[in-house]
Every structure is written in structure tokens, then in C-alpha cells.
């Protein structure tokens, strides 16, 4: 089972944190610091698996990571998960982000947090792997974008209606309204 997914830059700044086990804010920050210390000190030519830190579960948990340009993608898993399977899952996650954002970079993770979380939610939910087919994940993301566009159109409808009423210039139209002369009304006009 996946216990946490962490993405941070070369300076240790978190760009995506997803914990599937409850930790306090202080514990989460300590986990990020400790994980960054463990991973950033390693050479590029060593394997991408290491035992988890003391806070995240110790020997029973492993940190499996990939380093792409300025970002570290780290999955903390228990002993029931396959290290090679998780490496493949990280690759699928990064390639899906790459296709979604056309050459993903750190800024995409910052400015499109909702899309990144949606993609991650399609891959992993509750610490369990749901989907590894990139085409299916991208299809679900496109469906979500269509729904968001439809909702934007519906939510904008009241504003468009108000704008249309304002552009009608109703006070002027009421002034310009010509009523027919009715017999007997001319006597009332003269009375006032």
C-alpha cells in the first residue's frame, strides 16, 4: 500500500504532498524534510529504493523515487508493493503530466494543482493503485474539463441575463412608450 506521495524540487520545496495516512501538519513537514535529506544526498548512479525514515515507518517502508530535471517524485510504500511496479507507476504519472501540460515543469505543478491532483486521483486513491493506462487517465481528464466548461457556461448564465436586461435600457423604453388615446382620457387630462 502507498503511504504517501511527495513531489519536491531540488531545494526541498514541496510541490505536491499526498498522504494516505493521517499525520499532523508538523509531522508532515518533518517527513518532507527527512525524506529530502535522504533522497537528495544520493548519487544519480545508485538505485532508486531506500528504507523509509524514522517518521514514515522505518524498515517496514521504502522510499521509491525518480529525479526528473528539477523535481523529485517520491512514493513511500510498505513491503507489499513491488519496487519496480512503483517505479513504473512514477513513470506513468510523469508521462501523463507531460502529455497533459505539454512538457511538464515545476510551474505546472504550482499553477495547475487541481489538474495534478485529478490525475493523481485517477492513478492512486486511498493508497491503492487504480489505473496505470495513460490513455484512460487522459480521457478522464478530458471528460472533467468538458464538465468544467459546461458548468462555467451554466454559472455564467445569470450574469449574461443581467447584462442583457441592462443593455435593453428599460427606463428609456418606458418613456418612449406610446399609448393610444382613449376616449374619456382627454377629459381627465384637462381636469388636472
Question: What characteristics describe this protein?
Answer:
19% strand; 7 helices; 7 strands; alpha+beta; 192 residues
Please provide a brief summary of the model.
The protein is an alpha+beta fold and 192 residues long. It has helices spanning 25-40, 83-101, 106-111, 113-123, 134-167, 170-175, 185-191; strands spanning 2-9, 14-19, 49-51, 61-68, 71-78, 124-125, 128-129. The strands form 2 sheets. A 5-stranded antiparallel β-sheet has the order 2-1-5-4-3, sandwiched between helices. A two-stranded antiparallel sheet has the order 6-7.
Could you characterize the architecture of this molecule?
By secondary structure, the chain is an alpha+beta fold. The protein is 52% helix and 19% strand. The strands form two sheets. A five-stranded antiparallel β-sheet has the order 2-1-5-4-3, sandwiched between helices. It has a two-stranded antiparallel sheet with strand order 6-7. Helix 2 (83-101) runs parallel beside helix 5 and helix 4 (113-123) packs antiparallel against helix 5. The protein is elongated and about 100 Å long.
| Main β sheet profile | 5 strands, antiparallel
Distance between the termini: 89 Å
Adjacency order of strands in the biggest sheet: 2-1-5-4-3
The level of helicity is 40-55%
Average pLDDT, rounded to a whole number, is 84
Principal-axis shape equals elongated
- In DSSP terms (H or I, runs of 4 or more residues), the helix count works out at 7
Helix-strand string: EEHEEEHHHEEHHH
Residue runs with pLDDT of under 50 for 5 or more positions? none
Keywords: Cytoplasmic vesicle, Golgi apparatus, Membrane, Protein transport, Transport
Membrane topology: Peripheral membrane protein
Organism: Mesorhabditis spiculigera
GO biological process, one term: Golgi to vacuole transport
